[in-house]
Amino acid sequence: MITTAALICIVIGVIFNALGAIGILRFPDVYTRLHAETKMTTFGTIFVSLGVILYAAGMLTGTGDAQYLTLGIHTAIAVIALAFTNATGSHAIARAAHRSGVKPDPAVVDRLSEVKRRD
Amino acid sequence: MIRLLATMVAAFVAYLLLTAGSGDILLWSGPELVAGAIIAIIVGITSYRIFCRSENLRMANPLRILLLLVYAAIPLLIEMARANIDVAIRVITGRVHPGIIRVRTGMKTDLGLLLLANSITLTPGTLSVDVDEESRDLYVHLINVPEALRTEKSVDSRELFTFFNIPGWIRRIAE
Amino acid sequence: MNDIFYAAILALLLLILVAGIRLVIGPTVPDRVVALDTINTLMVGSMILLAAYLGQTIFVDVAIVYALLSFLGTLAISKYIGGEL
């Protein structure tokens, strides 16, 4: 039962990761690619890790081996660190891209460039 | 002094989480506990100036940390799921109307602004690009700017989210 | 269950190759950084799966350190191309 849940989580995670990887190939400019990268791969990795945590929980109740407790806790810490650093890192990339002169293209509105031109 | 102590406790808790399941005093073995205490003291002395910048210790309140976990587990995850399905559809169809708009946040602290910027990046089709340090306004890149927002000079941060009042949650956690 | 882990690891490695295409052709430098960040995230995911597949918990510790170090690398490159370093 819990193995099936873990399996479903891992499959969902791999699908989202795949969409993220295809998204950075398909989208037209840096900012839209960042959307694909940050959201899809972070969400996919969260689901993959959730699958591993469920698997570890199932094995822990099945065998009582303390190794699986360590596996679950460490996976949770890894995924929390990943989610937090990914969001901050994509913010840094977007800011650096705008500062280095890569403008969003196509764009229907760009308030940040308007402010910079006024300065 | 209180900053030093708070940093040491935080480092010790992090060490305990990383070594859970190593022995039989509760979950930890004796040598691990001693080593963890020594490492926590060293880390505390070297990094308390960076870790606790202000004397204000409101984030040490366990209730706020619990609220942060609940926030990450329910509203943030649901908004993330909605955003991901939205972006997934756009990956397949390739229909985007991107643009950068200005968002009023109304946050009073840097930590609140950090949490809001990260939440915006992880949720519905939005990505924080830059921040106005004085007014604490964010410049947000939207993958699909709705018609109604294209002409407005600045947008309230609540309009970016659909199901939950995320800025309200963050204000309750960080301020 | 082990077969599932193996298949998932192979799928993630294939996706790393797909992201590598963007790393090679990316017209601007930020594009390449985005591709590199994607590769890092996928790598952390596959390391976690590898730990479960081989039953070696130590790989997850490697994944934690990898995630934090890749974040530092991304920040350093971003500061550099943004002209703040």
Structure, explained:
Chain B: Keywords: Cell membrane, Membrane, Transmembrane, Transmembrane helix. The complex is a heterotrimer of chains A (119), B (175) and C (85). Chain A is an all-alpha fold and 119 residues long. Chain A has 4 helices and no strands. Chain A has a single domain, classed as Helix Hairpins. Chain A has helices at 2-26, 30-63, 66-99, 111-118. The longest helix of chain A has 34 residues, at 30-63. Chain B has 2 domains: 2-55, no CATH class; 65-174, no CATH class. The mean pLDDT of chain B is 76. Chain C has 85 residues and is mainly alpha-helical. Chain C has one domain (2-81): Orthogonal Bundle (Helix Hairpins), CATH 1.10.287. The mean pLDDT of chain C is 86. Chains in contact: A-B, A-C. At the A-C interface, helix 1, helix 2 and helix 3 of A face helix 1, helix 2 and helix 3 of C.
Task: Record keyword descriptors for this entry.
heterotrimer; A: 119 residues; mainly alpha; Helix Hairpins; 4 helices; C: 85 residues; 0% strand; flat
- pLDDT < 50 stretches of chain B: none
> Which range best describes the helical content of chain B: under 10%, 10-25%, 25-40%, 40-55%, 55-70% or over 70%?
40-55%
In the CATH scheme, what's the topology name of chain C?
Answer: Helix Hairpins
Q: Mean pLDDT of chain C, rounded to whole units?
A: 86
The N- to C-terminal Cα distance of chain B equals 23 Å
List the total number of helices of chain C: 3
Largest sheet of chain C: none
Oligomer: heterotrimer
Number of helix segments of chain B? 6
Could you tell me the strand content of chain C as a percent range?
under 5%
List the topology elements.
The complex is a heterotrimer of chains A (119), B (175) and C (85).
Chain A: H1 2-26, H2 30-63, H3 66-99, H4 111-118
Helix pairs in contact in A: 1-2, 2-3
Chain B: H1 2-18, H2 30-51, H3 62-73, H4 75-93, E1 99-104, H5 110-122, E2 126-132, E3 137-142, E4 155-156, H6 166-174
Parallel strand pairs in B: 1-4
Antiparallel strand pairs in B: 1-3, 2-3
Chain C: H1 2-25, H2 29-54, H3 58-81
Helix pairs in contact in C: 1-2, 2-3
